[in-house]
Amino acid sequence: MNTERSPLFFYQFLGAHSLLIGLLPFFLPVFLWQHGVGLEGLSLLIGVSGLSFVAALRPWQHAWRQLQPKNLLLLTFVFELALVGCAGWFTTIPGSALFDTGDSTAAKPLGSIFVAMTVLGIANGAYNAFFWTTQRSLFLQQLAGNNTGKQYGNFQIFVTVFLKVGILLGGLLLDFGGFLWLLALSAGVSFASYSYLASKAYSRLPDDNSSMSLRQSLTYTDTHGSKSTFALDGIFLYLESHFWTLSLFLVVDQDFSRLGVAVVLLAVVFAALFYLIKNRIDQLAVTRVYTAACWLYAGSWLLRFTLDENAEGAGYLVSLILLTFCSSFFRLAFNKRFFDVARKTGAVNYLLIKSYSSQAYLGIFFLLTCITVQLLPVDDIKILQYGYVIAALLSLGYLKYRDQ
Predict the structure, then answer these.
(1) Quick check: 112 and 240 in contact, CB under 8 A?
(2) Residue among 5, 134, 137, 2 nearest 73 (CA)
(3) What is the pLDDT of residue 103?
(4) Radius of gyration of the chain (CA)
(5) What's CA 314's distance to the chain center, in Å?
(6) What Cα–Cα distance (Å) separates residue 387 from each residue in 71, 166, 217, 244, 375?
(7) In Å, how far from its chain's centre is CA 370?
(8) Mean pLDDT along residues 60-84
(9) CB 32 within 8 A of CB 41
(10) Distances (CA, A) of 311 to 260, 303, 363
(11) Three-class SS string for the chain?
């Protein structure tokens, strides 16, 4: 591996995919909501995504060890375009499962939604497995010394910039340009990024004999409390990325452009706070910081519960800033702990254990949620709001994660 250019290459790869995530994957839950998919459909999508992610990890391990780096990169872009293409197929082709006929009273057939969410879930899981596992593995190669908090902070700020540019473009295109423009831009960014990165890629990936299976991951135990923490983390990542995004979308009157602007404004606050914290977190009392971050994270879910589509004014803005800070601070503290433990216990194997465990448990959890939501005679928006109270209680399980 050419170690002199590895950090630059990593950030170039990260920037390209962060931009792509902002174009559609970020909007996927709200995009589907506008096409008649309720919480049961979104839960099915997430459940299938988790199981698809698990199924794709074995091929990813083979690709990491056997394929040329540029071919592994190609797969990440191919799977991303497959996800965008599937979303477009099910929503924009006349007669397809989620096509908008203009009749707001016409219910979508449950069978059609089931097929669409299953296919989208498979595509989403495959993309996430190849992109996120590759990204985290490459990030592990950048770590050196006792400054994982600072390095993760730099990484997160960088991601935020490109992601929010993608979100602004995605929101504008969905509102004013239409899906075909978004698909064209995604394809163009993918082709240009791959063409550039393929010429800059590692001559080979880091030597690593890591190999892990689902069974090994689910039976793994250690003194850090990793097993229960990993079971929780996949669920919370989707609660943040899908369900909270949907809540924000409802607050801004289901307007893609306004959602994009709101997210970008919050990102400015996030980046400023992150910049102040990231350079100091490695020097602070690690256990106290992590414990405080967990309690603040639980508070952020209670704060989400208090917000609904009727929220407005300065108090609403302050609440959004507070919960953004609490969530961001927690993610910084949690990922610092995760990468510190990973370096001690066998980096890529530990990463694979987390991926297998978190995705398997979230797959089961959200498939059960899909069934539960379908049986409950309660409005989806009420389920979404009161679910945040349950999330606040469950989030305290992160306190079991120890660094020793």
Answers:
(1) no
(2) 134
(3) 53
(4) 20
(5) 29
(6) 41, 29, 28, 11, 15
(7) 19
(8) 87
(9) yes
(10) 18, 12, 32
(11) CCCCCHHHHHHHHHHHHHHHHHHCHHHHHHHHHHCCCCHHHHHHHHHHHHHHHHHHHHHHHHHHHHCCHHHHHHHHHHHHHHHHHHHHHHHHCCCCCCCCCCCCCCCCCHHHHHHHHHHHHHHHHHHHHHHHHHHHHHHHHHCCCCCHHHHHHHHHHHHHHHHHHHHHHHHHHHHHHCHHHHHHHHHHHHHHHHHHHHHHCCCCCCCCCCCCCHHHHHCCCCCCCHHHHHHHHHHHHHHHHHHHHHHHHHHCCCCHHHHHHHHHHHHHHHHHHHHHHHCCHHHCCHHHHHHHHHHHHHHHHHHHHHCCCCCCHHHHHHHHHHHHHHHHHHHHHHHHHHHHHHHHHCHHHHHHHHHHHHHHHHHHHHHHHHHHHHHCCCCHHHHHHHHHHHHHHHHHHHHHCCCC
pLDDT at 102: 58
Q: Which domains does the chain have, with CATH numbers?
A: 6-400 (1.20.1250.20)
Residue (of 265, 258, 237, 192) closest to 330 by Cα position: 237
Long-range contacts at 311-315 (CB < 8 A, ≥ 24 apart) = 311/251
For residues 314-329, one letter each, b for 16 or more C-beta atoms within 10 angstroms of the residue's C-beta and e for the rest, the string is eeeeebbeebbbbbbb
CA atoms within 13 A on the CB side of 52: 23
Give tens-digit pLDDT for 17-42.
Answer: 888 888 888 888 988 988 889 999 99
| Amino acid (one-letter) located at 356 | Y
Residue with structure tokens 């293409």? 85
Count other Cβ atoms within 10 Å, centred on residue 288. Answer: 9
Q: Summarize pLDDT for 238-295 with one digit per residue, the tens.
A: 999 889 888 888 877 777 777 777 777 777 776 676 666 655 555 555 788 899 999 9
